[in-house]
Model the fold of this input.
Amino acid sequence: MRYKSDEISALNKIYNATSSLIKNKDYDKLTISEIIRESKISRSTFYVYFKDKDQILIHICNDIFDHIFSNKLNKEKNHDFSLSDDSIHLLTHSFCHFLEDKELILPILNSSGSSTFLSVLRKRLKPLILSLVDKKIIGNNDLPLDMKVHQYINGYVALLQYYLRHAYDLKPELISEYYLKLYK
Done:
């Protein structure tokens, strides 16, 4: 869907306000009224774009994942994967960005929004995992493809949650290496 500039402005205000509130307040206790007040938009404008806060969360997730799982890697402030487009670098790139967005992601994972976040994440992970399996980087066995992909996605999710909650001193490259070793 193409948006006009004033629509993009309203969406950005809602997105930014919600992201800011999630970082400072329990998602479960966050109200639409607070989002409207923080974003400085009218209630009717809010409801033009979203019916509830879970729809905003899906938008936030997609915004995060659009960059994290982009097949085009650019040089960025904190890392440079632009010279490589292989699946291993995409995997490491994903862990880099999840770590960078930890202040927003952890409160979501620790709330009822977790199921929404993880559902969207699983869908967005599938192409990366399939690429790793197709290139025989992981899953070099004779198990059914659907079973492998399901398990590797769940393994990624579990490792990501561990990484964000406990492994502050581990680098994204090391987490990628651990993931690959788990599923070789």
About this structure: The chain has two domains: 5-51, 62-183. The CA atoms of residues 11 and 49 lie 8 Å apart.
